[in-house]
Amino acid sequence: MAIDESRIHDFLRRYGGLLAAFDARASAALWGPPRALLTDDFGGALGSDDELVAGLESSYPLYRALGLAGVEFDVLESVALTDRTTRLRVRWHFLDDAGERMSRSDYEYYLQDADGELTARFSFGIDDAEQLADLARRKGVDLPS
What we know:
By secondary structure, the protein is an alpha+beta fold. The protein has a single domain (5-139), classed as Nuclear Transport Factor 2, Chain: A. Helix content is 34%, strand content 39%. It is built from four helices and six strands, in the order ααββαββββα. The protein has helices at 5-20, 24-28, 49-65, 128-139; strands at 31-38, 43-45, 70-80, 85-95, 101-114, 117-125. It is globular, with a radius of gyration of 15 Å. The protein starts with a helix and ends in a 6-residue tail after the last helix. It comes from Agromyces agglutinans. This is Nuclear transport factor 2 family protein.
């Protein structure tokens, strides 16, 4: 039996809330090996929660400067690959402190049910760099080089 959609939505709500709360340690706990991240400009596997925490924390100053205060999501596609693994296409909406959508970004994830707990195993950022650059330009925030 495939992973229930309500569990997937619960996972994404929890993950999005932790990202918006800038809680790197709790966000990292929702990942399992190999913690693989891929974009057009980056590819790698983070060997431990500590490495993922460091990566998340390094992005927080920029997200704060851009005014990130909340996160919403839409599941664009959900494909059960096996009973325990689902591939998702998710559109994240990034909100300001008034709850207005500032930007959005699409990702693909592989989620796995490991001993009753869902964990993200792989993430592909489809348009994150472009969307981030556009938001920074509109907000007048310089991106780190």
